[in-house]
Amino acid sequence: MVGSVHEKAHIKRMNFALFGQNSSFTDDTVLTVAVADALVQDKPYAERIRHWAQAYPRRGYGGMFREWMARDDAEPYGSYGNGSAMRVSPVGWAFHRKKEVLDAAMASAAVTHDHPEGIKGAQAVALAIFLARKGADRKAIRAEIEAMFGYDLGRSIARIRPSYRFDVTCQGSVPEAIIAALEATSVEEAIRLAVSLGGDADTQACIAGGIAQARFGEVPEELRAEVLRRLDEPMRAVLRAFEVRFGSTGSGF
């Protein structure tokens, strides 16, 4: 939501309003709820992703995804876009073992993004959330993600920002979003750092915010209230059901 009004603005600063009149949920929100719903109901990822995307058809989906969501028999289309990573955060909260997280992240990605980079992006984000909620510090998270996925997480946002450009690939946006989450000292700062890259603002803020939530244990009350106000009741119902089944995520939903 925070990044929704900044995606095409390419801002390179952190001093912006978190919410404005036009701030709204995007495809990132819809499909994150879809993955959470699949986990709550033990239903196939593809079924729930299609259901939610069709219920909210104009939220910024990519062209190939729009074709996929319109057909119940559509196969994955080899994407390595960051759509697999933007929706995966519930997986990082729902499982208790590393292998389970990696397997579920792959399954959630592969219904559309079955390219190795698309799967890797989803697994990296889910694993970072899992490690953070298990108490790993940022150095340990950085080391494990780098070792497993080959991402360069040793850069700083200040170093990346000046030359960074809009990039919707996993390999060109997920590492930077993870860096924002690990560099931050709060959930809000993680979101601001991600948006300040001037790239795919809503998706990178979604990824960074999801990891930061696991790192810092809760979403600040003011931020949570603004988010909930912009969601409709079906979405809020899924969030409540997710926490009932999988325990508190610190979101306060």
Automatic annotation (TrEMBL):
Mg(2+) binds at residues 26-28, 200, 202-203. Keywords: Hydrolase, Magnesium, Metal-binding. Its cofactor is Mg(2+). SUPFAM superfamilies: ADP-ribosylglycohydrolase. Binds 2 magnesium ions per subunit. GO terms for molecular function: hydrolase activity; metal ion binding. PANTHER family: ADP-RIBOSYLGLYCOHYDROLASE, ADP-RIBOSYLGLYCOHYDROLASE-RELATED. This is ADP-ribosylglycohydrolase. It comes from Plesiocystis pacifica SIR-1. The lineage of its organism: Bacteria, Pseudomonadati, Myxococcota, Polyangia, Nannocystales.
